[in-house]
Design goal:
With about 220 residues, the chain is an alpha+beta fold. The chain has a single domain (about 25-215), classed as endopeptidase fold (from Nostoc punctiforme), CATH 3.90.1720.10. The protein has eight helices and eight strands. It has a six-stranded antiparallel β-sheet with strand order 6-5-4-3-7-8, sandwiched between helices. Strands 1-2 form a two-stranded antiparallel ribbon. Strand 4 (about 60-65) and strand 5 (about 70-75) form a beta hairpin. The chain is globular, with a radius of gyration of 18 Å.
Length: about 220
Amino acid sequence: MPSVTTVKANVLIPVAQTKEKQMTHPEFKVGDIIACSGYAWTSFFINIATYGIPGYHASHVGIIGEYNGELLLFESTTLDELPCVIQGKSIDGVKAVRLKDRFEQYSGRMWHYPIYRPLFTNEANRLNAFLLETIGVPYDHIGAIRAGGIGWSWFESMIHRADLGSIFCSELCAAGHTKIGLLQTDNVSRWNPNRFLRRERRERILKKPWRLKCEDFAQPCS
């Protein structure tokens, strides 16, 4: 029996191929965003403050970079003891961790937001250099509070310029994407996790998210 096809944009696509693409987790690559929604009260509060639904929208984000040929998750956080792969110790601020370790340690849901295309070599090099420069920068508690809510974050960005002397999670991601021209913004400090994801999805910088599961990693979960 001939294979059945579906029509999209005047192109015939085999149904089997379409289903395979929908069921296959896209590969991690430099510049992709990882979003988290934790079960702790802090995650609940962050979601409410940024117009998200706890458990379904993001309370934390990180960005994938490369170090010594290994893809790592660069994030700014204070709420766990997972050590930084590069500095070999726990850091309250920007650190790099193995994505599988973060997945196994995290109490909550995680999603993979792929960027819409692979980065060019020079873009990836600039992003990696920027992320490495931020390792060890302390967490920005005040900046994270200022970024909460749509109207509040806009007002605060008018009176406070971006300052990367300390960094919160979505500020790091926004700065990284701005560094290589993916995101256009005059103030990377205005972006809370949910606002950042909504903006980049609306501008099609990020593809649809993929809910992460154990089978999405090359090595089995412990």
